[in-house]
Structures are given as C-alpha cells and as structure tokens.
Amino acid sequence: MHLLRRGDEGPAVAEIRASLASLGYLHYDGSSAASNGVWNAPAATFDADLETAVRAFQQARGLLVDGIVGPATYRVLKEASYHLGARFLFYQLSSPLYGDDVVALQRRLQELGYYVGRVDGYFGLHTHEALTSFQREFGLAPDGICGPETLRSVELLGRSITGGNPHAMTEEELVRSAGPHLTGKRIVIDPGLGGTATGLTLSGPDGDTTEAAVLWDLANRLEGRMAATGMETFLSRPKYANPTDSERAELSNSFAADLMISLRLARNDTAKAHGIACFYYGHPDGTSASMIGQALAGYIQREIVARTNLLDCRSHARVWDILRLTKMPTVQIDVAFASNPEDAALLANSRMRDIIAEAILVAVKRLYLLGQNDQPTGTFTFADLLAEEQNREA
C-alpha cells in the first residue's frame, strides 16, 4: 500500500478511521461514512484528528510515531482488529496468521503451561505444537486448530503457571548454559540500507560518505572483532542489496544464531534531534518482551554512551518486524541521527566507528558474563576482552 498521511482522501482513509474508532482511538459516526456508495467527509479525509489517533495507536503499539499510515502501521492495525474467537486459528506455512487473537491464545496457553515461546502474535510451529499438546491432554482432536470447542476448553481452565514468564526464563537459561566464553557464539550482524538505498550524505574528517557505507563499514569492524574472539558471524545481506526487514529476519533465522544486532541510523524532520537509542522486541505496556534483548540493549546503550559524546536516548520496547520476526533475541541500534550534522560528522569518523564496534562487542560479553567478574561501564577494552577469553580457555 502507498503511504497515507494528513490531507489524503478516499476509501482507504475511511477504513483507517473506522478501524481506529473500533479500537477506541477515535470517535466516529459511521452514518457519515457513505451515501449511495460514495465515501463522504470527514470519514474519507485524513484530518488532524485522524493523525492524532494514528500517533496514539503507533505509540501504544511500539511503532515509529510519525502519524503516517505505512505498511507497518497498516499491518498492525489490521492485526489489532482480530479478537480471540472471531476466526479459526491454525498453522499455515504459506500464509501465516498474525493478530491480537493469536497473542491472546499464546498468553492463555502460556498460563496453562503449554507454550514457552515468545508472545509475538504469530501462529507458527511452536504455537501449533503447544495447541496440539493441549488438545491431546484434554481429549480434543489434536488438529492444531483453535475453533469454538478448543476455545471453550482453553477459557474454562484456570492458570497453571506461576512465578514468572516461561519464555523469559527459557531465554535466560540459554544464555546461562552457553557460558561466559564468546568462542562459538553465533551472531547475525544486520547493516541497514544497501543496494541503491544509500541514505543521506555524511560529512566528516575523512571526507563525505553515505549512511549505507557507514553502516556497512561499522558492521565489518564489528564482525572483525567478533571473529578475533572466536565468534561465528553472519551478515544479513550482501553489500549491494537492500532486503526488507522480513527478508532479513527470514535469512537470519536460517543461521540458528544466538543473537542478532541490527545497525541503523535515525532521521528526523528537524536537525536538532540527536543521540543513540537501542530497541528490543516488546510491547510498550510491558506485557510481552524479550528479556535477553532488553538486557543486551541496555548494555549496548550504556557502553556506547560512556565511550562517545552521543546523547543517551535510552532503550525501548518495539514490535518492528526486524525485532519481532527473528527467532533469536535481537537488538536494533539507532547509532546516531544522520539528519543531525554533529552526529553525522561523528559517525563519518572511522576512529569513532572503531570505538562503537568495540563498545558493542563488550556489551555482548557483559551479557554472557551475567554480572560475574565484570568491570565498570566504559572501562572494559578489546585487549581486556581478548585476555579474558584466553585466560578462560587456559
């Protein structure tokens, strides 16, 4: 779909208005929507009230808050319209089901002790297996289809699991059991842009460069340092390609990696916006999140801020595709604002990219140390890290 923004008109705008009204973000009188098949104002006009409602929805759903309805916002808006019981839910590989009804089912199965995966609204293989296990134990046909009979059984049973989020505990145990060594850890590095999408031009002490070139170079510097510690690294794309976020996630999942680190530069309409922010999978209301992703985002944020002059814009939960569709804990780092001259000059400096790559690697090490034998933020060097790895191997 094309982008919808303030000033646009037509049936697509009316659909957005009606969807937001049904979700409680907008008061909408449906009687003004159509007359003799023709959509009328204000239903078919993208006005200031609709933009405000879009922004409120984006904020609540962990999306980029820009008041524009693009593919991501439209997808999440459609998913939010599904309520558990409104449709049959089942696993289909060719056209997977997403929606708030899947979220509700996953949470219910999690409470009953059958689902230990991430609550992400995707009816995948893990959700299918959890549902069939539930059906089998309670004498239902184990067909993996959540229809009226299965739904009634799910709703009648009380909560069985207490004491924490099973997925969070599973993630933490995977990190704990992996041990503090970096050797053998599998990491996907995802440099943004690529191909013909080169982004803005950045000016710095080394001359002019582009967003894409900076991100690719940063990815390679990080990859080199990780390889030196014995880690296995994979890039989410070739140099001259710009896959979609869902394509990047799909490729990354095939590597069976432990973590994914996505590198991006932010932009803003005003050049005053500046600083670094990290993002991990999770709903802003805190009901579902990747605990390891959250922990790693915090480590990366603190390490980079301690070593650079970048403003601390903190870490945040989001439901973006690159975070949601990856099976491993994933962090997106908006390293700086390409639209800010000071940030751009800083990132255009190759020495600063070395510092940032080192900070990210140290943050990953801190994650696996689990707070043991740690050093103050900003003081753990690459040389220290290599010595630590060699001492543990000795």
Write the layout of secondary structure elements.
Elements: H1 11-22, E1 34-35, E2 38-39, H2 48-60, H3 71-80, H4 100-111, H5 125-137, H6 148-156, H7 166-178, E3 186-191, E4 201-204, E5 207-210, H8 211-228, E6 232-235, H9 245-253, E7 259-266, E8 276-281, H10 291-307, E9 312-318, H11 321-324, E10 330-337, H12 341-347, H13 350-369, H14 382-393
Parallel strand pairs: 3-6, 3-7, 7-10, 8-9
Antiparallel strand pairs: 1-2, 4-5, 8-10
Helix pairs in contact: 8-13, 10-13
Q: Using DSSP, what is the number of strands?
A: 10
Q: Kindly identify the CATH topology of the largest domain.
A: Aminopeptidase
Report the radius of gyration as a whole number of Å: 23 Å
CATH architecture assignment name of the largest domain: 3-Layer(aba) Sandwich
Number of structural units classed as domains: 3
Helix content: 40-55%
- Using the alpha-carbon principal axes, give the shape: globular
Strand content: 5-15%
SS summary, helix count: 14
Mean pLDDT: 88
Low-confidence stretches: none
User: What's the name of the CATH homologous superfamily of the largest domain?
Assistant: Zn-dependent exopeptidases
Structural class: alpha/beta
In the CATH scheme, the class of the largest domain would be Alpha Beta
The description of the largest β-sheet is: 6 strands, mixed
Terminus-to-terminus distance: 57 Å
Topology as H/E string? HEEHHHHHHEEEHEHEEHEHEHHH
- Trace the largest sheet across and list its strands: 6-3-7-10-8-9
